[in-house]
Amino acid sequence: MKFDKETLSYIVPNSEENGFSPIVRRLGDEREPASFDKLKTIHDIFWNTATENPNTPFVGHRPFDPKTNSFLPYQFMTYGEVAKRADNLGSGIIHIAQKRSSTPEEKETVNSRNWCVAIYSINRPEWRIVDHALPTQSLYSVALYDTLGESSTEYILNHSDALIVFCSLDKVSKLLQMLPNTPKIKAIICMDDIHSQKARNPPVHIPSPFNTTSIDVLKSWAGSLNIGLYDMKEVEAIGAADKIEQHLPKLTDIYTLLYTSGTTGNPKGVVTTHHNYTESTKTFYITRSHLSKPVYISYLPLAHCYGRSMENYVVLSGGQIGYFCGDVPRILEDCRALQPTYFPGVPRLLNRFYDMMSSIIENTPGVMGEISRRALSEKLVNLRSGKGNTHPIWDNLVFNKLKALISSNLDSMFSGSAPAEPRVLDFFRVVLSVQVSEGFGMTENAACVTGQLPTDLTSGNIGVPLPRVEIRLRSVPEMNYYVEDEPCARGELLIRTTANFREYLKEKEKTDEVMIGDRWFATGDIAKINSNGTISIIDRKKSIFKLSQGEYVAPERLENVLSKQPLILQSFIYGNSRQNHIVAVIVPDPAVFIPWATSLLKSKNEVLDDLSLESLTKNETVKHHFLLETQKLSRESKVQGFEIVKSIHLEHVPFDIEVNKLLTPTMKLKRFDAAKYYVDVIEKLYSS
């Protein structure tokens, strides 16, 4: 394996082993400030910032005004105010847990600390207050996705041994319904005010259906179950009245449990320590130190490592966090109200922004439209020829107005969680005229693996190893990926970093499967190391299956190919070792599919009284021509013959999280569940 002279990484000498590539590290010497030496835990990071910047605005939200049915401007709490509330809350949690413990063993567990508290809510300032309160008493969190279904929530609460749950008001009734199946829970602490006179009106954080009567019912219900129901302000008051001194964590203590949204079976509880997340936080700071005191819009779920790590980085930087109003379609409204300098993106949302902004450029009439389209074309040419992403004329004349749709103060955008389309990244680089970079991380390493350098304006790669991170590849013969491949080494991506997790909770066998050799984490992702030292994810190992003639199929890669077809919204590709070809369940995109199918039937002189999505997906003519379109795209994408779908089922009901439960909270397809859900459909596809 060799790199170009203009490389962005370096190969560790004499680090090759049979079946493994050499070890690759980041090029350069980016050292952390000396003052960071004293920061050993996430608690240290927050308390250091709060001590140095007590009056700096920290967390903000937009209160909801029921009179006008609208959200008001952002209101912020300072670092000092949050520190005081966190200190009181930590003390109050211990008091509540002691009060609700009924046996000597339970009391001993509470007093010895290092036990789990669940957080079940959308992103909001109280989420962060709880997150900073728990370490003051050496407690740790388990974060629950706001969108989790009942069975997954019950499983995580029981598996994590959580004793107390913090939640928003809308989750209280759901939790009370689960309590007969979650016997370890002692108390529910509501983030919204449920005891004061103000609670007799709708809460100010979010529009709420709750009123006096329903809150009284919740209190009575909790009492009948012998469960404590408190609100946060009440617990803070308890803690302040009888202060329990802080009981601080060690760097090896658990900071948080994040459950990976497994695509098969139950989710795995990833145990990460204060050391893991502190190292990750420092690493992000080093690579973003040019973004002094960022203003950050928080909408990425805090049950996901990406959102959690980004907020910890903002805390270390002494920046501000503005929480979205709870409605992702209104995220641009929140951005314009907050004016963030840093926007964390995910491909799904960036694609929506892209569709909206590119449509504006495409459809602007007259001279201004011609100028806008010329400006975009010229800047894209400049970008791809290495001339940068700014322009002295076009930016002021055209693109600053588009940038203002997000934030006029924006100076950085980052995309993570899944591969982004290169055309989308390039579009934002030239339209926003800011650093737009892509990176890679996982729950098992606190989101800290790779990232593009500020000077890297290319697409199609996830950058280079971050400081403190080493990567290498190992050959995967069954998929024909080898570290000796030319021109680029290919294989499974392995990661070694100080941010690597401790273990999967109560699952040593699964931990041992992925932690190999000298603490290398096997990701299950197939990558290639490019000649300039950057890394590209090209495939996925874990979801592969073998056909009857011995060919291996990677369905995720093929689904990514199909996703380029505008007719397709979602797809599930299936095969097994008893069959010699693959089949697919495809959810069409109604906005594109219905006009296409209607036009197709008209051209065939076929009359259909019902032109609904459901009716069109059942039409045999439509299905036949839809299959031809997918096969045409597959051939154009140069996939192997055995990788071309031979039969399809058109599904009018999208895969989702709550109804058919075929998606994880991070919008990944649950293959095992999908195969069971569509077992009859799949059998019919193979028999036809």
From TrEMBL:
Domain AMP-dependent synthetase/ligase positions: 65-505
* Keyword Phosphoprotein recorded: no
Cite the Gene3D superfamilies for this sequence. Answer: N-terminal domain of ligase-like (3.40.50.12780)
MF term (GO), any: long-chain fatty acid-CoA ligase activity
Record carries keyword rRNA-binding: no
PROSITE patterns named among the record's database cross-references: AMP_BINDING
> What name does the UniProt record give this protein?
AMP-dependent synthetase/ligase domain-containing protein
Give the UniProt entry's GO cellular component terms.
Answer: endoplasmic reticulum; membrane
Specify the superkingdom: Eukaryota
Keyword annotations for this protein, in alphabetical order, are: ATP-binding, Nucleotide-binding
